[in-house]
Amino acid sequence: MSDAVASRPFIIRVGKKVRPLLNTLIAHNSLVPDTPVLDTSLFPWISNMEQRAFRIIEEFRILMTHGVSSFPALRDISPDHTRIAPDTRWKSFFLYGYGNCVLENCRRMPCTARFAAAIPGLNSAFVSFLEPGARIPLHNGVTKGLLTCHLGLQVPQDYRDCWIRIDDQMLCWQDGKCILFDDTYPHEVQNNTSDHRAVLLIQFERPTYGVGRLVQGMFLKAVRRSAFVQEAKNNLAHWHALHHEMARTERQTSGLTV
Question: What InterPro entries does its record include (predicted)?
Fold first, then answer.
């Protein structure tokens, strides 16, 4: 075994070999369709969130008054995403990540955090921010145990030039509206505009039963305890500490503090 392979987290090295079987079991025992794109009406909380989207968008706009410095590059937080985030134009603002609450960020978007916390089976919730020209190459998610929902927060004016393709379906975002999909199907994203694109990205547990439910729970539990999730958690804490230190130094330099 090469050093590069041996250094990868156990859940990645072993899980990759058995994931097809696990995903087949989860899909077979799914209570919702196993399709690339799903109908948002399957989950009543999505409609409720869309009805209150103006509050989430308002909090996002307030957050944006501090500029994009509020958003660390996803690759800096989660090195596991380096392949699909080759530069810093894909940024993130985490509220929840694999069950871990980012308290400082939740305090900056309190209404959004409360909405997210009430979602059944919540795994992660964060603002996914793409700068102009950003591209996320074709890739597949890890597990059918999770579904992904995007709520449009800031959609470029030329929205048709900013899209996500999931399997053979190309979708565009709308402010205050959601799209729902299974990210184990091949998907890619492009922002071919001069504007920024932001969505609230929510990952939550797929409703399942029987053996599929058991497999799903065991796999997600292993991922949440894995080294790469802990690394991302530590990286985010380090980024916040560094950001605070830079802000403190800037205030001192400006003569605002002694």
Answer: Asp/Arg/Pro-Hydrxlase, Asp/Asn_beta-hydroxylase, IPNS-like_sf
